[in-house]
Structures are given as C-alpha cells and as structure tokens.
C-alpha cells in the first residue's frame, strides 16, 4: 500500500561536508517526514573547517531543474538558502513566479560561520527588491537582518524595527534569529507575523562548536511543517525544539565547526 506524502523543495547550494546547505536541508526534511526535492544553484567544496571553493551553476541548468520538478511533483512549500550572486537571485525569482510551489521561506544566507562569503555584495539589492517581496517568511540571523534592513541592532527594540523594515520590503512574516544582548545566557528569537502579532522565543544558549548548518536546519523544519499544512506559529515552535535538541545532543564529526545531530 502506498502513502501520500507532502513534497517540499530546497533551492540552495551544496555542502560536500554534509552539515549545511542542501544536504542539511534534505536530511532535516527526511526527519520531518516530507519528501524533499532540490534545485542546486551552487556547489561548494566544504568540510567542517571551511569552504575551499565554490562553483555557481549556469542559468540553463537552474532553469531545467525547476522545469523538471514542476513537470512531475506536487510541491507544497519551498525554501531558499545560499544563492551566491545577483544572477542566481534573478533566475530563482523568475522561476518561482512561473511555477506554483506554495509558500516560500527565504533564509538569506550570506556568510558561513568560518567566514566564507556565500552571497556576493552586489546581490543584496536583488534580495531586497525581488526575493523578499515573494517571501511568506524570511529567517535572517542578526547580521543578515542588519544588512537587509539597514538598521544596526544592539537591542530588542532594534530587532523589532528591523523586522518592521523587512515587512515593508514585502516579507509577510519575519523571524529574526538568535539575538543575545547584555551577554545573556539566553538566546532570543523574535517573530513578527503578518497581522502584526509578535512572538519572542527565549531559550538556553549552548556552549558548543557544533552548530554548522543551524540556519539551514531551522528553516527546513519550518518549510516541512508548512508543507504538511501546519500553521506558521506551530511550525516555528517545532523548528526551535528541533534545533535545541540537535545542538544539545551533539555528535562529533570532523575537526572544526561540527554538524548538528539531526536524529536528536
Ligand atoms: N554552506 C552552505 C552551502 C550553506 O547553505 C550554508 C548555510 O547557511 C552554510 C555553508 C553555512 O553554514 P554555517 O552554519 O556553518 O554558517
């Protein structure tokens, strides 16, 4: 007997080290019991110590991957991760508008923890003006929120202002991840919903080196839950629980910033 399963899409770069990027996305989606598909926009040669090299895919093959998926699958929600440069952002936006892949979660990946640039500076405009208006949810960390909103963030009030700015740019809902002010031992995430409601998620901060792929993982949980028809508030809470457990029950792989434990 066969079972119908929600189908989901990640549009991002690969991580040969398996801890971030498309690999982290698809592992997470599997754990959330959805069927994952992908559009590869860049290939990184990477391990837990850093990014050695990046090759951006040509427009032709990005377009063809979208076409192949649209021809055959019933995708209920999609996310973007590393988009590399402005040309890729244009291509992704063009394809997303052409097909019906459900709500879009935009994780505006810019710089890897090891310092490698995953989005060129000249792509910021395209993210602000073309991609953000399509976002059902955007999930920046603090540096990404600062860059996209133009607001320097030193307090929770400034987090709120940045979230409002991202809504003005067109994102329906905004999740700003991981504010920790006043050397607090807590981590705070702030959500501004479409209807103006707010949610603050306060959690423990774990002292660990093994947080490679955290952003990819939480956005993958959220998009999986949306594909299953869960409401956004519930999806975000599930994402947060998944991340906390994955960090708390860490695994040891590689010699640098290790990956999360996706089975936790
Ligand atoms: N490599 C790729 C391809 C990614 O998409 C991401 C996502 O943020 C990273 C690396 C960053 O990983 P890290 O969590 O170590 O910053």
Automatic annotation (TrEMBL):
GO biological process, one term: thiamine biosynthetic process
Catalytic activity: 4-amino-5-hydroxymethyl-2-methylpyrimidine + ATP = 4-amino-2-methyl-5-(phosphooxymethyl)pyrimidine + ADP + H(+); 4-amino-2-methyl-5-(phosphooxymethyl)pyrimidine + ATP = 4-amino-2-methyl-5-(diphosphooxymethyl)pyrimidine + ADP
Pfam families: Phos_pyr_kin
Domain Pyridoxamine kinase/Phosphomethylpyrimidine kinase: 15-261
Gene Ontology molecular function: ATP binding; hydroxymethylpyrimidine kinase activity; phosphomethylpyrimidine kinase activity
Known EC number: 2.7.1.49, 2.7.4.7
Associated pathway: Cofactor biosynthesis; thiamine diphosphate biosynthesis; 4-amino-2-methyl-5-diphosphomethylpyrimidine from 5-amino-1-(5-phospho-D-ribosyl)imidazole: step 2/3; Cofactor biosynthesis; thiamine diphosphate biosynthesis; 4-amino-2-methyl-5-diphosphomethylpyrimidine from 5-amino-1-(5-phospho-D-ribosyl)imidazole: step 3/3
GO cellular component: cytosol
Domain of life of the native organism: Bacteria
InterPro entries: HMP/HMP-P_kinase_dom, PM/HMP-P_kinase-1, Ribokinase-like
Keywords in alphabetical order: ATP-binding, Kinase, Nucleotide-binding, Thiamine biosynthesis, Transferase
Recorded family membership: Belongs to the ThiD family.
Protein name: Hydroxymethylpyrimidine/phosphomethylpyrimidine kinase
Protein source organism: Pediococcus claussenii (strain ATCC BAA-344 / DSM 14800 / JCM 18046 / KCTC 3811 / LMG 21948 / P06)
């Amino acid at each position: 007997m066969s079972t119908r399963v929600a189908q989901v899409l990640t549009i991002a770069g690969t991580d040969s080290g398996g801890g971030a990027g498309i690999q982290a996305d698809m592992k997470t989606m599997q754990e959330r019991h959805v069927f994952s598909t992908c559009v590869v926009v860049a290939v990184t040669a990477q391990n837990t110590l850093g990014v050695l090299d990046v090759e951006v895919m040509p427009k032709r093959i990005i377009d063809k991957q979208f076409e192949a998926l649209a021809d055959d699958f019933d995708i209920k929600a999609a996310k973007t991760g590393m988009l590399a440069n402005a040309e890729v952002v244009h291509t992704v936006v063009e394809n997303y508008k052409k097909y019906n892949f459900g709500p879009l979660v935009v994780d505006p990946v810019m710089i890897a923890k090891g310092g490698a640039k995953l989005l060129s500076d000249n792509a910021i405009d395209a993210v602000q003006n073309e991609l953000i208006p399509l976002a059902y949810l955007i999930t920046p960390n603090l540096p990404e929120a600062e860059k996209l909103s133009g607001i320097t963030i030193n307090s929770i009030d400034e987090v709120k202002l940045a979230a409002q700015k991202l809504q003005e740019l067109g994102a329906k809902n905004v999740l700003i991840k991981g504010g920790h002010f006043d050397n607090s031992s807590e981590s705070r995430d702030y959500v501004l919903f479409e209807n103006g409601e707010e949610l603050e998620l306060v959690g423990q901060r774990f002292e660990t080196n093994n947080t490679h792929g955290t952003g990819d993982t939480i956005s993958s949980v959220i998009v999986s839950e949306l594909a299953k028809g869960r409401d956004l508030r519930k999806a975000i809470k599930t994402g947060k629980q998944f991340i906390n457990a994955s960090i708390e029950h860490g695994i040891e792989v590689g010699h640098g910033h290790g990956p999360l434990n996706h089975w936790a």
